[in-house]
């Protein structure tokens, strides 16, 4: 079974809760630079790009804390 | 330390000296952080009687202990200094990402002293602090400044606090812009930055925020999040943000226009009511760690402002430029938002200065000889925008407006002071106290930064019905099931709800003011889904699990009370007397729908509030017994 995170950048509000939750889940600290999910904010355009580091092994931490439906944890056989 | 970085960065711009010092655990326990520790630093390190635009003023940025964590809405930074507008404690609060970034740089507080000889900006890159030339930035508007800094530091992720032209020209209500989306708007602290020749503070941090009890903190965060997401105000705030309240206040009949001279008519709600937002809103924008996203990305695709895109449409500019100045076009309010942000001037005081000018012109107190030949009429968008520009550059008539409405009326004379709407030097919101008397309206009077609405917010309101006219001690309470859920300690509940279906205003005002101090010291947001669903019980759990310092709900409440006390001591030392704590004459003299404020009755409520606080009713200063209880020194 494989898992991945489905993303919908249009629903992303740029809150970065996912980045804080990711660093907290894996390192027990808050530090966005340690997060495996990255939200790149383009404030002048009001857009947010959702990216993942190469060592991200998808889990449901980021999707569970997204209040906006921008991230969905999907498992596939 | 856990939660806190434990460090204060002090930069003396006169000498260029940069030092670090530790925060004591006692200060954390007694003042929490953010607003509380900022105010303590001001009282300890500056003389409140100084000239606010001199190098003696101390500018403090404080991110609370929760900031930078995933506690919902924990992104707020309070900025404090002596206000060049009011002469009292200047304090202003803003969210988005600057505060979290300060924590990731390794600091809870940043203290700026002295004055640079030439324009500079500060770049804090983790533990390294650089004071760099800002000659190339001086004269740029705030958005151009932020873009230039992101380009030259080659990092899109830096967070920037900066001033626009307004701060450079020492407009006494200049803002400090907080990135492209937000601002520390009230009380003119952008002018304090300008007086120090400080154009911007850019931050980039990669350091950890550690947690004393990760499992316990996670549980407290989940509890906080669940309460916010399940609160009845959550969904409407998600959709409309603060403009939700435009319709609520209009329906209550408490929005006044034309510089608070008359109740607004139906054209106001038709053109500026909340449904109009949906024509422009493209998506929601959130501050860091916020599950509400009350901000809107708006795009104007028709009319004279076609092509305008920004985060905007909030209740404050809607009331300020819509009600107060008479604009009846939401896209023009969006344009005003772009202008006051780029210029770096406070929306509310700018609109109040313009509205005062229009009223004085309409009454014949000033003429075109005063206004650089401009004909001032209510709702004339292009004239209002031209006045914004003149204020920011202190050009011609704008120079008079740039000192703020109170100084402006004093200079013009001829009865113009009767047209002021300022309470303790800061304008009272267009949610008019004559329309409805409640904790909100009484809060204008006791707010230590002057008469705005943001420092005394009740966690329990009845917005369906108002108390009978002439009642000043009580407002109507919400239903019992709502009251039962509000996190107020039992002893305070007995005093606040001591009469059936009613809220005792002096007690609730004291509780609400202390609660807002806690919120602004923790570094979380005061939007209704937060303020109405949370209180000292959960805040004490969050603090204890995050920091490892044992806080009880009563310890947290007491910290809020201690902050209220030192705020009053600061203002007393700055020269404010008991008799200065009053509304502008307009509210006592000019009726709206037949209602005006009764000063003698309000003074009785004020005396009771001082009694609740154990303050002397003649001086409004804490009595010795209260000072001892709070471990405070007697003010000299």
Please provide a written account of the structure.
The complex is a heterodimer of chains A (77) and B (636). Chain A has 77 residues and is α+β, with helices and mostly antiparallel strands. In chain A, the strands form two sheets. Chain A has a two-stranded antiparallel ribbon. Chain A has two helices and five strands, in the order E-H-E-E-E-H-E. Chain A has a single domain, classed as Alpha-Beta Plaits (2-Layer Sandwich). The longest helix of chain A has 11 residues, at 17-27. Chain B has three domains: 7-204, Aldehyde ferredoxin oxidoreductase, N-terminal domain (Aldehyde Ferredoxin Oxidoreductase,  A, domain 1), CATH 3.60.9; 238-427, Aldehyde Ferredoxin Oxidoreductase Protein, subunit A, domain 2, CATH 1.10.569; 439-629, Aldehyde Ferredoxin Oxidoreductase Protein, subunit A, domain 3. Chain B starts with 6 loop residues before the first strand and ends in a 7-residue tail after the last helix. The A-B interface holds A 10-11, 13-17, 20-21, 24, 27-34, 40-46, 65, 67-68 and B 68-70, 97, 104, 143, 147, 156-157, 179-181, 206-211, 214, 218, 229, 282-291, 293, 295, 297, 309-311.
């Amino acid at each position: 079974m494989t898992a991945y995170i489905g993303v919908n950048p249009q629903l992303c509000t740029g809150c970065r809760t996912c980045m804080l939750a990711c660093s907290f889940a894996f390192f027990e600290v808050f530090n966005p630079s340690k997060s495996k999910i990255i939200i790149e904010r383009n404030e002048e355009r009001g857009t947010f790009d959702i990216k993942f580091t190469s060592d991200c092994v998808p889990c449901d931490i980021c999707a569970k804390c997204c209040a906006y439906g921008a991230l969905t944890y999907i498992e596939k056989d | 330390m856990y939660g806190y970085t434990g460090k204060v960065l002090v930069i003396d711009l006169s000498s260029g000296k940069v030092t670090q010092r530790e925060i004591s655990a006692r200060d954390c326990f007694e003042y929490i952080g953010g607003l509380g520790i900022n105010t303590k630093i001001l009282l300890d390190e500056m003389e409140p009687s100084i000239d606010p635009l001199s190098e003696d003023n101390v500018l403090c940025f404080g991110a609370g202990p929760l900031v930078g964590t995933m506690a919902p809405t924990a992104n707020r930074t309070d900025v404090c200094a002596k206000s060049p507008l009011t002469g009292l404690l200047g304090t202003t609060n803003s969210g988005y990402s600057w505060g979290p970034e300060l924590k990731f740089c390794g600091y809870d507080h940043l203290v700026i002293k002295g004055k640079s000889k030439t324009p500079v900006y500060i770049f804090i890159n983790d533990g390294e602090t650089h004071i760099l030339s800002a000659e190339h930035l001086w004269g740029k508007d705030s958005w151009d400044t932020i873009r230039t800094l992101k380009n030259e530091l080659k990092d899109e992720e830096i967070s920037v606090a900066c001033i626009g032209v307004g701060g450079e020209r020492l407009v006494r209500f200049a803002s400090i812009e907080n990135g492209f989306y937000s601002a520390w708007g009230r009380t003119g602290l952008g002018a304090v930055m300008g007086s120090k020749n400080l154009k911007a503070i850019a931050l980039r941090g990669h350091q950890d925020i550690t947690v004393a009890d990760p499992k316990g903190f996670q549980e407290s965060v989940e509890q906080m999040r669940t309460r916010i997401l399940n609160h009845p105000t959550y969904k409407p705030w998600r959709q409309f943000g603060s403009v939700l309240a435009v319709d609520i206040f209009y329906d209550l009949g408490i929005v006044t226009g034309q510089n608070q001279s008359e109740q607004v008519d139906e054209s106001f709600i038709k053109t500026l009511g909340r449904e109009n937002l949906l024509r422009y809103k493209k998506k929601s924008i959130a501050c860091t760690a916020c599950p509400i996203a009350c901000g809107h990305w708006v795009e104007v695709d028709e009319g004279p402002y076609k092509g305008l895109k920004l985060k905007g449409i909030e209740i404050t500019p809607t009331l300020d430029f819509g009600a107060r100045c008479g604009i009846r076009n939401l896209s023009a309010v969006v344009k005003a938002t772009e202008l006051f942000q780029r210029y770096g001037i406070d929306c509310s005081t700018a609109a109040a200065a313009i509205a005062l000018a229009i009223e004085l012109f309409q009454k014949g107190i000033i003429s075109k000889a005063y206004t650089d030949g401009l004909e001032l009429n209510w709702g004339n968008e292009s004239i209002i925008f031209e006045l914004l520009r003149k204020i920011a550059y202190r050009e011609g008539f704008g120079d008079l407006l740039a000192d703020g409405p109170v100084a402006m009326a004093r200079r013009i004379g001829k009865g113009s002071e009767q047209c002021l709407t300022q309470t303790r030097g800061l304008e009272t919101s267009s949610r008019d106290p004559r329309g409805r008397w409640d904790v909100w309206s009484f809060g204008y009077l006791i707010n230590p930064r002057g008469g705005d609405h943001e420092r005394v917010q009740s966690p329990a309101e009845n917005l369906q019905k108002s108390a009978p006219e002439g009642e000043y001690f009580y407002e109507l309470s919400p239903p019992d099931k709502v009251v039962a859920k509000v996190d107020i300690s039992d002893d305070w509940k007995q005093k606040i709800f001591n009469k059936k279906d009613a809220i005792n205003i002096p007690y609730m005002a004291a509780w609400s003011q202390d609660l807002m101090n806690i919120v602004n010291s923790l570094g979380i947001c005061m939007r209704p889904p937060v303020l109405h669903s949370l209180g000292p019980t959960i805040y004490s759990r969050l603090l204890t699990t995050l920091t490892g310092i044992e806080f009880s709900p009563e310890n947290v409440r007491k910290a809020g009370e201690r902050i209220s006390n030192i705020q009053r001591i600061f203002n007393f030392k700055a020269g404010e007397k008991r008799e200065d704590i009053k509304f502008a004459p307009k509210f006592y003299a000019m009726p709206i729908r037949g209602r005006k404020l009764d000063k003698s009755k309000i003074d009785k409520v004020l005396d009771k509030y001082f009694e609740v606080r154990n303050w002397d009713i003649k001086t409004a200063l804490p009595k010795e017994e209260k000072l001892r209880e709070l471990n405070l020194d007697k003010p000299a």
